[in-house]
Amino acid sequence: MANPGHVHWQALKWVLRYLNGSLKGGHRYKRIDPGRDALEGYVDADYA
């Protein structure tokens, strides 16, 4: 993605807003393996 367009920036802003709001809602993300670029997500079902 050498030259992302306007739609891509809008999508990125939406994702960042979602993640920012979800930090207060019981989501937790962590790296599965320090050598890999992968995330594992958890949700606190009691919070929802």
Automatic annotation (TrEMBL):
Q: Which domain of life is it from?
A: Eukaryota
* Name the UniProt record assigns to this protein: Transcription factor RAX2-like
UniProt organism field? Trifolium medium
Q: What is the lineage of its organism?
A: Eukaryota, Viridiplantae, Streptophyta, Embryophyta, Tracheophyta
